[in-house]
Amino acid sequence: MTTAMLTTAPITADWRDFLALTKPRVMTLVVFTGLCGLLAAPGHIHPVLAFTAILCIALGAGAAATLNQWYEVDVDAKMKRTANRPLPAGRMDREAALHFGVGLSFFSVILMGMATNWLAAAVLAVSILFYVFVYTIWLKPRTAQNIVIGGAAGAFPPVIGWAAVTGDVTALPIALFMLIFFWTPPHFWALALFVKTDYAAAGIPMLPVVSGEVATRRQIWFYTAIMAVAAMAPVLLHLTGLLYGTVALLGTLLFAVFAFQVYRRRENDPSKMGPERRLFKYSILYLFLLFGAVVVDRWLLA
Predict the structure, then answer these.
(1) How far apart are CA 171 and CA 38, in angstroms?
(2) For 224-271, what is each residue's pLDDT tens digit?
(3) Which residue segments constitute the domains of the chain, with CATH numbers given?
(4) Which of 94, 159, 184, 227 could form a disulfide with 151 if both were Cys (CB 3.0 to 4.6 A apart)?
């Protein structure tokens, strides 16, 4: 087979490539926090509609991830951890990804509105648009504070889940939004510290690339302190009870221990990033624990 024949052959992506575009591993946490918002909300929603609402949150998250990869294909091609994604690897053309992402976006929002209510659908639409236009297109390539502001995109799911049941947004879903918002910087910067060379190669101004590792470690510690306040806010505001307060207190103390270990390190060797990797992995478990505790606590108080 000649080179000319290879270059003109059509690109045929299979279902696994489309699934990969939705970032299913990242979606797990998004779906879980959305589910917790739905389960913690007062009132009743039919199980079929509840399932549909969570499905719409998953589809919306997948749509945002797809459009992110469609826009960043050249950037992903320059980074080792993303070079094998369907678009930079050449397993799918950009037009197919664009159509898939836009189609998922519209479908998820319209289905959410028809199955639950249009407030939940509107918040879902805002979350998709925020991730694509504010974070991906505007902030990420321009400022080292991209993940601070852009982190709001990942904080919407519990608000959407709550609104799907109640048709409104009250203090607790806002508190959960703020928890994820302030959790995102230490979570993501811990990752950025041990993949700094990837971001540098791609020209993305992540904080470790622009301001250095010492400043990043300081910011991780600073945002951990703010996150601790946000984590305790639900119980301090009497929105949750003792069970959540205990889990939040103990979980946040352990988070602070790991964050302090990252803060005090001055080792720049990428092969010796144990504390950073430990903080990143624990931060995911931390959010699962706190949101699970919110649901159990609300059920006990009901």
Answers:
(1) 14
(2) 999 999 999 999 999 999 999 999 999 999 999 999 999 998 766 555
(3) 20-167 (1.10.357.140), 170-302 (1.20.120)
(4) 184
